[in-house]
Design brief:
Blueprint: H1 9-22, H2 26-45, E1 50-55, E2 60-69, E3 81-83, H3 84-87, E4 99-103, H4 109-138, E5 144-153, E6 156-160, E7 165-169, E8 184-193, E9 201-205, H5 209-219, H6 221-224, E10 228-236, E11 240-247, H7 254-259, H8 266-272, E12 277-282, H9 287-294, E13 302-306, E14 311-316, H10 321-325, H11 330-339, E15 342-347, H12 348-356
Parallel strand pairs: 2-3, 11-12, 14-15
Antiparallel strand pairs: 1-2, 2-4, 5-6, 5-8, 6-7, 8-9, 10-11, 13-14
Length: 357
């Protein structure tokens, strides 16, 4: 076939523009374009030849890759083999066993190249953007990001994170929150996967206990420095959270570090959580002490530990029962979640009556 120079200036201009605007490498797009043109050539000219496409800013050329064999009788497949005599017409240095490239650029290949180029650029742009978005947000899994509420449907709330939309499923929303369209919010990145139909699937949460934990990590330098540790957290989103903290420096008060002077550290978090109550308690390796702290603000008179059943029986003054249990049993429930122990709360009178019986 007669060779024809095909201008690829427009394609390269498009590639340059995509590189500048989207950050997708030229090499990636050019290699993708080559593969697309090879496929387009085989489809349009119904050939099984081994095809390679060479593309630069001046032209696009198509080559058939053939293996050189000694004689005609040695040829098993003419689409990929050529005799030595034929090969020497293209390369005087050709010898049996070599592989040579024979230009087969069609006259009308410019039209095919333009169509395939446009299609592959759009396709690869989408794929590359998906990969970039996935890579970017995979690193943010388990972190807090800022987004803008787009809309709410039966599946949850769609949040625009800038380069991608993500979902706060209904189960990860706080029932007491009413998120408004165009509202700017902070969210916890629960998971990032590549399996989404339209790109990476990013699941967000404002309900997760880890959301509160990460908010404190952002506000409290001692946590970032590793001096103060959050040992446990239990949350009933929208209502109350209990956090157990520990200091690796005896001179640093872990509870005070999270609260801050005059509440300067904890207040922005309470505001972010729309007034949700936050109890911060000292963590202890001593289980009885830990459970007593977890039941704060209740007064505890005595505690009995059953290690086998992981059960703690707690005795409180009669007038402290409501504090120990909490509204709807919330305080006791969160204490059990925080410590990992079952907690049975008894009043002083109940214990005395049991002893008498």
């Amino acid at each position: 076939m007669k060779s024809e120079k095909i201008s690829s200036k427009e394609l390269f201009n498009a590639i340059d523009q995509i590189y500048e605007e989207k950050g997708i490498t030229k090499e990636y797009l050019i290699e993708s374009l080559k593969l697309a043109l090879e496929t387009a050539y085989k489809r349009n000219y119904d050939t099984n030849e081994n095809i390679v496409v060479d593309i630069n800013e001046q032209n696009i050329k198509v080559y058939a890759v053939k293996q050189v064999v000694e004689k005609e009788e040695n040829i098993e497949d003419k689409s990929i083999q050529i005799t030595l005599d034929e090969a020497k017409k293209y390369s005087k240095r050709a010898k049996s066993g070599d592989t040579i490239n024979i230009e087969v650029t069609p006259k009308n290949f410019g039209r095919i190249a333009a169509a395939a180029g446009k299609q592959i650029i759009v396709q690869r742009l989408r794929e590359a953007e998906r990969d970039l978005v996935y890579t970017q947000y995979a690193d943010k899994e388990g972190q807090i990001v800022v987004g803008v509420v787009q809309r709410t449907d039966k599946f949850g709330t769609i949040v625009d994170l800038g380069r991608v939309e993500a979902l706060i499923p209904v189960k990860e929303q706080v029932k007491t929150e009413q998120l408004q369209t165009h509202q700017r919010i902070r969210v916890y990145v629960e998971s990032v996967s590549e399996s989404g139909k339209f790109g990476p699937q990013i699941v967000l949460s404002r309900k997760s206990p880890n959301f509160v934990k990460k908010l404190f990590e952002l506000e409290v330098p001692e946590i970032l420095d590793g001096i103060v540790e959050i040992k446990g957290i239990a949350r009933e989103a929208g209502s109350r959270t209990k956090i157990a903290v520990w200091s690796n420096d005896e001179n640093i008060d872990p509870v005070g570090s999270l609260v801050g002077k005059k509440g300067i550290r904890i207040q922005p978090i309470i505001d972010e959580l729309n007034g949700e109550r936050i109890d911060i308690i000292p963590y202890s390796d001593d289980i009885p002490s830990y459970i007593i702290n977890a039941l704060s603000p209740a007064v505890i008179l005595a505690i009995d530990i059953n290690d086998e059943e992981k059960m703690a029986t707690v005795v409180v003054p009669d007038d402290s029962l409501s504090f120990a249990i909490g509204a709807g049993g919330q305080n006791a429930r969160l204490a059990a979640m925080l410590t990992g122990w079952k907690i049975d709360i008894k009043t002083e009178t109940q214990i005395k009556e049991k002893i008498i019986e």
